[in-house]
Design a protein that fits this description.
25% of the residues lie in helices and 32% in strands. It is of the alpha+beta class.
Length: 210
């Protein structure tokens, strides 16, 4: 089961209005498919891989489940698609693992796929709170700050973020989940890379939902 479990609506909106995403629409799937893209998680992301991310009608939230703000979520999948194409049209999105091996983190956006776990357990929080997820690679810890309200199955009661049986183990820190992301670099220091994601694409078993 694969779907976007997180899309940063605020960042996608900012990019959408600043990158002229209509320009990227001029790239056709036939043209982009001619560009080679390695399946390795250490490969840079080009236009061809952007198309592959969205094949099969991928959704923001699980398919077959009644989603809150369903029309809005459909709109943000399309916006994210256009934004990623516009970014990749300017040059491949750099693989974080490759950049760390070379010792050069000089881009704004990076790509990574791996097992993420929450840095600190979430018990009860305001829906506007931020949770940090982390993973380790190349001897470096990647930490990504995520707004709780942008998770696809975020449940809010009186503006509180509500855990449920399908996500409690992840947000308590008990289990990691495999996710793919393109994130914005915020800072790097002492074997730590700090960022914030444009999206998180979840690869999960049927019992887990974010």
């Amino acid at each position: 089961m694969e779907y976007f479990c997180y899309i940063s609506r605020s960042k996608v909106d900012q990019f959408y209005h600043s990158l002229a995403p209509g320009t990227a629409d001029e790239w056709t799937e036939n043209t982009s498919s001619e560009q080679a893209f390695g399946a390795s998680g250490g490969a840079d992301v080009n236009i061809a891989h952007i198309f592959s991310l969205f094949k099969g009608g991928i959704t923001y939230g699980r398919k077959g489940v009644l989603q809150k703000e369903q029309k809005v979520k459909i709109e943000y999948v399309e916006k994210l698609h256009r934004v990623l194409k516009a970014i990749a049209a300017q040059g491949p999105i750099t693989s974080l693992s490759d950049a760390l091996r070379k010792g050069k983190l000089q881009s704004l956006c990076f790509h990574h796929e791996g097992l993420f776990r929450v840095e600190r357990p979430v018990s009860a929080a305001d829906a506007a709170s931020v949770v940090t997820i982390q993973t380790e690679l190349e001897g470096t810890m990647l930490l990504l700050d995520c707004s709780l309200r942008f998770f696809s199955e975020a449940k809010e009661i009186d503006e509180k973020f509500i855990l449920h049986s399908s996500n409690a183990r992840f947000f308590s820190g008990d289990i990691p989940l495999r996710m793919e992301t393109v994130f914005l670099l915020l800072h790097q220091e002492d074997r730590r890379v700090l960022g914030t994601p444009l999206f998180l694409k979840l690869e999960a078993a049927m019992g887990t939902a974010l």
